[in-house]
Amino acid sequence: MVLLMSGILLVAMITNAYMQFRDEVSTMEQVLKVRAQSLGQMLSSVSIDALIDYDVSKLNKYIQDVTSQAQVVHAVIVDTQGESLTTYLDLNDFYIQNTLGTLNDVDSALIVSELEKIAELVSYKVPVMYQDVMLARAIVVLDNSEYVAASVAKFQEKVLSTLLIGLFVGMGIYFVFRRYILRPIMSLSAGANRIANSIFGDEIKVQGDTELTDLAADFNQMSENLELLIADRDSALEDLGELNIELEKRVQERTVELQALNVEIARQAMHDPLTELPNRTLLVERLKQNIYLARRKESHVAFLMLDLNNFKEVNDTLGHPQGDRLLLDVASRLPTALRQSDTVGRLGGDEFGIVLPETDAAQALQVARKILESLQPSFELAGHAVSIGASIGIALFPEHADDEASLIRYADIAMYEAKRSNGDPCVYNPDADNYTTARLALMNDLREAVENDELQLYFQPMVVLSTKKVQTVEALSRWEHPERGNILPEEFIPLAETSNLIGVISFWALEKSISNIARWKQQGADIMVSINLSARDLLNVELADHISRLCDKYDVDPDMLRIEISESVIMSNPEQVIEVINNPVLRQLKYAIDDFGTGYSSLSYLKKLPIDEVKIDRSFVLDMMQNAEDTSIVRSVIELAHNLGHKVVAEGVETEATLTQLELLGCDVVQGFYFSEAVTANALLDMIDKIEQES
């Protein structure tokens, strides 16, 4: 009986110690998981900027900071496919050393998988989110062995103390039992069983004034103390739980605040404040990343440069707020023509950049045309329906360049080429790049040709349909290169504009034209010369004085000279063109709008200009007989010009059928190969006689 009672008491006390041990281990595990979660969320929040920048060194620094903390075995950031984005390992850690000894491949993500198999370790995974998109996962592994070992040691101490107490109590019971009656012993045993079963509050009653009575009192006191201790423990655990909840809540709130702040800072730094599209910085970074991926996959990347046509006119006419409204509307339309994997951003002003991953030239052209189609519907601005087009240049990796800066520059060059080609998307062509070696060499040859007076001026007759007479000729520059032969103006005039030679060539052409007007007059022929001037020529402050000196030098009336200004030049800055033409000297000249119909003219500006002729671009005249749309355009231009009081000149007349059609449409003047090609000044009068005789 004594042994049984002693055994029961011993088991009860050991059981109680084990329950306390289990509760402590569970509590410590929860605390460790909360800590792992907090570290993972902290690592997730600070890693967003480094992930956006793809800064592996910064990510490794964050990993090192986390790993250096107590109980942290390992930390890693993996992408959405589970591949490691960080490489830092604490090689001094026991678990890391053992894991590396069993693996052939030192991969941080693979190490995490092996560590998660160890019972003493706790891991937690936190998604790294950016704009509702998961960029990666942050994983933190903590060592729970220290807590477990401490709890085990404490349990062992309790067990040892319980064994000692049990032995002492057993001996006491055995001694008392031998000396006293069994009832007090049974009472004490029953009380001990109640205490062992965590039943407190029932008083052990022993009659008499013996040691058993005192023992019963001690048991009663112990029961009371244990009850108080259990209550304190439960209260402490409850407080700890509430504290953990509050701590977790604060950590979550702070994490949300930090994430929101980081997102806002990243958005402001990487996005255009007006359109909310990626700015130049982010767009260049996206292009850089896609070039890197394309290099690994041996794929293509296309970069599109888009510039709005006539945007300045919208700003000048409707005001900058409506210009901003137009940019917002354009920004909303552009993504509709793109894939989710594509990136569109605003480079500045009315320029947009578009990154197309895994896209070749043909696919890029298809996307560019789709973009232009999305911009075709008119925009509603201040109660006005405004139509606006765009010019798109395309550069490709790896065909044109292998870095983002060169790709952007080449796309910009192609974009300006698109502007010169009536708006069709243009893929970068090294031969059209003014800064290639060949172009630079040709530019140098042009400079020498100008200095050595190697250029020639030819003249093409313009026939008045009503009289079949020639009253005006157009001056056309020619360059006979000593090695390349005849170089067309379409090739060397743009070179001259980019090299500041256009002014020299234009002043040379003006003098040749005016001197020949004087010579032809001496030969009995009053021939007006029509000469093309560029935008740079019009802005030359010496233009008026130069023309005045030449007219005085050769005794030529200024009204014998007609200046041809392209429609695009006029509409690029109409107010300034009007101001230049209103110069007292320049006001005496005649003026014609060249290439009419290819741009976007405003009738209000046409009425303000001292224009006496409108020249229909040859691109509409050449296909008149095969294209009804071109015929409609020619008819509309003739009617519009006549309504404004201007004569109409049709370029590119090469067949009798075209000539007949133009006569039926009411065209005033024609020029083209049907009558004559451009000839020298010496041969001009004979050519005019031939034309008038045959007509």
Q: How does the overall form come out from the CA principal axes?
A: rod-shaped
Spans of at least 5 consecutive residues with low confidence? none
Radius of gyration: 46 Å
Number of helices: 25
Architecture (CATH level 2) name of the largest domain: Alpha-Beta Barrel
Mean pLDDT: 81
Class derived from helix and strand content? alpha/beta
Describe the protein in words.
This protein has 3 domains: 37-144, Beta-Lactamase (2-Layer Sandwich); 280-433, 2-Layer Sandwich (Alpha-Beta Plaits), CATH 3.30.70; 438-694, EAL domain (TIM Barrel, Alpha-Beta Barrel). Helix content is 56%, strand content 17%. The longest helix has 60 residues, at 211-270. Strand 2 and strand 3 form a beta hairpin. The protein has 25 helices and 19 strands. It is rod-shaped and about 160 Å long. The strands form 4 sheets. Strands 11-12-14-15-16-17-18-19 form an 8-stranded mixed β-barrel, surrounded by 4 helices. The chain has a 5-stranded mixed β-sheet with strand order 5-6-4-9-10, sandwiched between helices. The protein has 695 residues and is an alpha/beta fold. The termini are far apart. Helix 1 (2-46) runs parallel beside helix 8, helix 7 (182-196) runs parallel beside helix 8 (211-270) and helix 10 (311-318) crosses helix 11 (320-333).
